[in-house]
Amino acid sequence: MSSDARTHVLTRIRRSLNRGELPDEARAELDRRINEPKPGVVPARATGEHAALVERFVEMAEFAAATVTRVPGMEAVPTAVADWLKGHNLAPKVVAAPDATLDGLEGHGTLEVTRGVAHPADQAAVTPCFAGVAETGTLVLLSGPEHPTSLNFLPDNHIIVVRASQVVGGYEEAWAKLRAQGAVPRTVNMVTGPSRTGDIEQTLQLGAHGPRRLHIVLIDDHRRGTDSGEG
């Protein structure tokens, strides 16, 4: 909607409510609240020392039916991915996000890696994430040229690589972190466990609208005093 069209629509709404233009003070206050949002009430489980938040993230992710493998560094990720695929009788073949944070994924001798968007025949996808939320075990995934959204939903198996240094307490921290980096991407997906739905008898079915398995490879970089990684 153009600026002129927006002004026309808002003017008509104000007239229907018998309201005039907002005073400059009120407009400035609204702009301030938009640009400097204040968090609401944050639950206790979203607070604490970072090491405790990482443990809580793992606990909540597993509670949501995700599985977690912890590794000391990116160099161990290819083996962790290959072992997980083998453990589920899946071919050692993945489609991965063309993101630089996954460089080295091709380092495993038996793992076949292609980069780009997902296709219907792809069985497993590997993506990085922007943040992990300890409060609910949720993973924050951003769209963009290096993060095709199809990888999050099309394959039956989704493997997400997250660094411990990317774990935050609550959603408010994740949004603040996202705003701080500048422009917000077109799509922000928050994923908690594999896709699921319940029928009329509330029988839980996994994989109804997306991956039936969600596996997290957690890089314990916080134990080495680093803060590298995406975001």
Task: Summarize the structure in words.
It comes from Caenispirillum salinarum AK4. Residues 125-219 form the LUD domain. This is Putative L-lactate dehydrogenase. It holds the Pfam family LUD_dom. The chain is of the alpha/beta class and 231 residues long. It folds into two domains: 1-36, no CATH class; 44-224, Rossmann fold (3-Layer(aba) Sandwich), CATH 3.40.50. It contains six helices and twelve strands. It has helices at residues 3-16, 24-35, 50-63, 77-87, 150-153, 171-180, and strands spanning 67-71, 93-96, 112-115, 124-128, 131-133, 138-142, 157-163, 167-168, 188-191, 196-198, 204-206, 213-219. It has a six-stranded parallel β-sheet, with helices on both faces. A hairpin with a 4-residue loop joins β5 (131-133) and β6 (138-142). The longest helix is centred in the N-terminal third of the chain and has 14 residues, at 3-16. The chain is elongated, with a radius of gyration of 21 Å. The two termini are 31 Å apart. Mean pLDDT is 87; it is low at 224-231.
